[in-house]
């Protein structure tokens, strides 16, 4: 029975690496996968996923208006063979409607769906896609990384171009190591003192 999975973590935990490795495992066995990434996350190029350790893959760029279920149905009917698994990177950027589309891919089409993303933003608030995935995913899997103190990192802070801590701003601002640092809750709270 196919299920909807949500692998969540802070920044720099290896989520994209895990996704690319899992998709490779399917493809190595002759099975076709569909890989999605948010269209505005173009750090590796539009419609491209890249990990910090150098793994890369083409992906289908999606925005909030795209119907992911319809896309997977069309791919399955295009003559190139059935889709064995669906992968979504940066799943926090999914809309609630798209999370339900992914659930229907698992439930009605019998295709496993593996999503990877952040649970919370730099202010400690849930992203809409993460909120919906936490509510309805069949399996929740935490991908762990560590704070500088050695404790499990569960929070992230945002830095500006000068390396100064940012306490307010838009929830979505794409970036990597130069912009985000993962911390345990205690050290995040120490840095964000007075915010929460």
Name the CATH class. Alpha Beta
Rg is: 17 Å
Number of domains: 1
Order of helices and strands: EHEEEEHEHEHEEEEH
Say what oligomer this is. single chain
Q: N-to-C terminal Cα separation, in Å?
A: 42 Å
Physical arrangement of strands within the biggest beta sheet? 5-2-6-7-1-8
CATH topology: Rossmann fold
Count of alpha and pi helical runs: 5
Uncertain segments? none
- The rough form would be described as elongated
In total, the number of strands is 11
Topology at a glance:
Elements lengths: L3 E6 L5 H14 L3 E7 L9 E3 L5 E3 L1 E3 L5 H9 L6 E7 L6 H14 L3 E6 L9 H9 L2 E4 L12 E5 L5 E2 L13 E4 L1 H7 L5
Parallel strand pairs: 1-7, 1-8, 2-5, 2-6, 6-7
Antiparallel strand pairs: 3-4, 9-10, 9-11
Helix pairs in contact: 2-3, 3-4
Outline of this structure?
The protein is an alpha/beta fold and 196 residues long. The protein has a single domain (4-144), classed as Rossmann fold. The chain has helices at residues 15-28, 68-76, 96-109, 128-136, 185-191, and strands at residues 4-9, 32-38, 48-50, 56-58, 60-62, 83-89, 113-118, 139-142, 155-159, 165-166, 180-183.
List keywords for this structure.
196 residues, 27% helix, single chain, six-stranded parallel beta sheet, 11 strands, alpha/beta
Structure characterization notes:
InterPro entries: P-loop_NTPase, Thymidine_kinase, Thymidine_kinase_CS. It is an enzyme of class 2 (transferase). Substrate binds at residues 172-175, 180. This is Thymidine kinase. This protein has helices spanning 15-28, 68-76, 96-109, 128-136, 185-191; strands at 4-9, 32-38, 48-50, 56-58, 60-62, 83-89, 113-118, 139-142, 155-159, 165-166, 180-183. It has 196 residues and is an alpha/beta fold. It has one domain: 3-Layer(aba) Sandwich (Rossmann fold), CATH 3.40.50. Strands 5-2-6-7-1-8 form a 6-stranded parallel sheet, with helices on both faces. A hairpin with a 5-residue loop joins strand 9 and strand 10. Helix 2 runs parallel beside helix 3 and helix 3 packs parallel to helix 4 (128-136). The longest helix has 14 residues, at 15-28. 36% of the residues are buried.
């Amino acid at each position: 029975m196919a299920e909807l999975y949500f692998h969540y973590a802070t920044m720099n935990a290896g989520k994209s690496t895990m996704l690319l490795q899992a998709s490779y495992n399917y493809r190595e066995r002759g099975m076709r996968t569909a890989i999605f990434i948010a269209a505005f996350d173009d750090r590796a190029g539009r419609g491209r996923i890249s990990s910090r350790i150098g793994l890369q893959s083409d992906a289908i760029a999606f925005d909030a208006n795209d119907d992911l279920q319809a896309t997977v149905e069309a791919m399955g009917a295009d003559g190139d063979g059935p889709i064995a698994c669906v992968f979504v990177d940066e799943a926090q950027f999914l809309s609630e409607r798209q999370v339900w589309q992914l659930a229907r891919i698992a439930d009605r089409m019998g295709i496993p769906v593996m999503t990877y993303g952040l649970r919370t933003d730099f202010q400690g608030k849930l992203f809409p896609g993460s909120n919906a995935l936490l509510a309805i995913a069949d399996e929740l899997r935490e991908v762990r990384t560590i704070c500088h103190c050695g404790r499990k990192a569960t929070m992230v802070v945002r830095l500006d171009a000068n390396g100064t801590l940012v306490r307010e701003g838009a929830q979505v601002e794409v970036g990597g190591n130069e912009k985000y640092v993962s911390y345990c809750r205690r050290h995040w709270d120490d840095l964000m003192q007075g915010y929460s």
